[in-house]
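Quick one, tokens below:
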């Protein structure tokens, strides 16, 4: 293991590390050898380092490391920089600039899986780990500075000088004087994954008997065909789905029919706001005819209650063109199976897969999530007892899942639709548009036992052409369940490409998630604009545009002001937009560029006039 130490004052820290088996140390300082040797104890430490085989290099500028190490001698596994400082009475701005240059330089010499350790005095870093915490503008803003160079804070812990034998801090105001390290913190940074590539991609899917392709909406580019529910996946949403299926199979005969469910539906959704749908244009020449659509797979969805055959619809004397959209629910697939007659009573049919919905930006609002839909035909009059069996089974399974998660204590409850009033989550509100709901399925965890809506239960007596049977269905949001069970605070983390996420979830096992990106910096920008005359403002489209241009980096949009101009009646809105990543580095410059792009796009796409 190659270890680089920068800014050594008297080399006592480096000397305390030397001799570790399997470690090659390169210790450096900014001063010349003559200046460094004059510090108390430095000559002895330098001699010890050289005797142990370590390299000692002088006059090294930490912001230009690539100049001191040839390409073959870089790739350091760990870089230490203890108590960096510009010297004398340099202010926070100069020290931020020093850190910025240091982190950019480290990007050239650090191994891909390497770590950067930066020790700072209490309060300097500006993170919640500092006690007391300084005001942001008066700190070194180390996490934001590191993010600008592509690094994330993965750990922070007390700097324990007493564990390094012979270590004595020095360099207070560029003098051979020690300084207070009580409460000092060691910040550990790692490389971030690269920003999302926004190159358009095409996706192929089955539509009737024909394979078609379409361009994936930019906001979903990293969400299509991720395979989280496949057999070889260790993703927590699959683990939860498999555990729930196993539990349900003990109470009901079970048939899993999730394979080959088409991503696309055709028609015009009824009851669902069109702005909540991801509309799709097929690649040129690939739109199938109604006859082709009608052939082939039993689970192919043509037109359920979501819409009608557009070839037969006429508007103003002209046929309405075919329209395709990403499925917002698995219900149409279940309805198609029921209508095709492949639905024996008493057998629990399980469908699962990702569904897509445009929505506002909130912590638990997801434009895509994995739905698990269970459907069962039962004798009329027994539907309530069937619902109780389903809920009890789900409650038992989730209770068993949390046994390895000592900090999480979930509780499943069944709530009537009337108990929610108007305070519905985006998930629950959208489900209401898909059809009448009998019950909301809620999961609570301490300290919020009231819980979040993670599913809905419906009964549909008209689905079957039988007066003796009733269809009972339960739709579960597997992503919300994973968040609540594993303590994941941000839904975007479920879709991260960073391998450190899945490494925490061995196949078939759920664990309490520990974030590998601590205290990610946030950047706040305001945008105000005049609305077009006599047009309703589509807030969902506004939020979706923010998601698209930022690659999902916008975490909050809040209306700050609404103004109507006297005389003209023109309306102006002002929104506060907050940018923050949960799994990768996001620097202030990148966030500012996103804001500028957002301003351009809302002007072009929504027809507003910027103020």
């Amino acid at each position: 293991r190659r270890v680089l130490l920068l800014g050594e004052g008297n080399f006592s820290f480096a000397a305390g590390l030397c001799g570790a088996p399997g470690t090659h140390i390169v210790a450096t300082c900014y001063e010349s050898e003559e200046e460094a040797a004059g510090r108390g104890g430095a000559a002895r430490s330098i001699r010890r380092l050289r005797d142990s085989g370590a390299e000692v290099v002088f006059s090294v500028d930490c912001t230009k490391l690539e100049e001191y190490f040839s390409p073959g001698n870089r790739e350091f596994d760990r870089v230490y920089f203890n108590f960096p400082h510009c010297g004398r009475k340099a202010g926070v701005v100069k020290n931020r600039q020093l850190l910025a240059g240091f982190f950019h330089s480290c990007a050239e010499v650090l191994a891909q899986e390497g770590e950067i350790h930066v020790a700072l005095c209490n309060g300097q870093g500006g993170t919640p780990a500092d006690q007391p915490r300084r005001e942001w503008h008066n700190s070194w803003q180390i996490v934001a500075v590191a993010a600008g160079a592509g690094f994330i804070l993965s750990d922070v812990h007390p700097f324990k000088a007493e564990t390094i034998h012979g270590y004595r801090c020095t360099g207070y105001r560029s003098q051979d004087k020690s300084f207070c390290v009580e409460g000092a913190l060691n910040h550990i940074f790692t490389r971030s994954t690269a920003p999302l590539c926004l190159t358009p991609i095409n996706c192929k899917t089955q539509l009737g008997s024909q394979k078609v392709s379409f361009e994936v909406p930019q906001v979903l580019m990293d969400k299509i065909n991720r395979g989280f529910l496949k057999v070889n996946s260790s993703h927590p949403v699959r683990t939860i789905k498999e555990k729930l299926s196993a539990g349900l199979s003990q109470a009901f005969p079970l048939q899993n029919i999730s394979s080959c469910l088409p991503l696309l539906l055709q028609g015009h959704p009824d009851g669902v706001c069109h702005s909540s749908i991801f509309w799709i244009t097929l690649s040129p020449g690939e739109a199938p005819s109604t006859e082709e659509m009608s052939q082939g797979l039993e689970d192919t969805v043509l037109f359920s209650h979501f819409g009608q055959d557009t070839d037969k619809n006429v508007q103003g004397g002209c046929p309405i063109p075919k329209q395709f959209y990403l499925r917002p629910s698995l219900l149409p697939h279940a309805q198609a199976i029921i209508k095709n007659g492949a639905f024996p009573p008493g057998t629990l049919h399980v469908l699962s897969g990702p569904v897509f919905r445009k929505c506002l930006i909130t912590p638990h609002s997801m434009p895509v999530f994995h739905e698990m839909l269970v459907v069962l035909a039962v004798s009329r009059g027994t539907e309530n007892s069937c619902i109780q069996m389903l809920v009890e089974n789900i409650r038992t399974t989730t209770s068993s899942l949390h046994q390895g998660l000592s900090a999480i204590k979930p509780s499943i409850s069944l709530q009537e639709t009337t108990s929610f009033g108007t305070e519905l989550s985006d998930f629950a509100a959208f489900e209401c548009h898909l059809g009448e709901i009998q019950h909301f399925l809620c999961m609570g965890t301490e300290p919020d036992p009231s819980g979040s809506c993670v599913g809905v239960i419906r009964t549909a007596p008209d689905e079957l052409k039988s007066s003796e049977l009733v269809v009972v269905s339960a739709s579960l949001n597997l992503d919300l369940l994973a968040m609540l069970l594993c303590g994941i605070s941000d839904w975007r983390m479920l879709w991260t490409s960073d391998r450190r996420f899945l490494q925490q979830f061995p196949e078939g096992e759920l664990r309490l998630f520990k974030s590998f990106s601590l205290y990610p910096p946030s950047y706040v920008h305001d945008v105000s604009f005049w609305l077009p005359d006599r047009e309703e403002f589509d807030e969902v489209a506004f939020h979706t545009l923010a998601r698209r241009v930022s690659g999902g980096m916008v975490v909050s949009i809040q209306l700050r002001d609404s103004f109507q101009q006297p005389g003209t009646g023109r309306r102006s809105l002002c929104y506060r937009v907050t940018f923050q990543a949960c799994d990768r580095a996001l620097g202030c410059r990148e966030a500012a560029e996103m804001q500028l792009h957002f301003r351009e796009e809302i002007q072009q796409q929504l027809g507003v006039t910027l103020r």
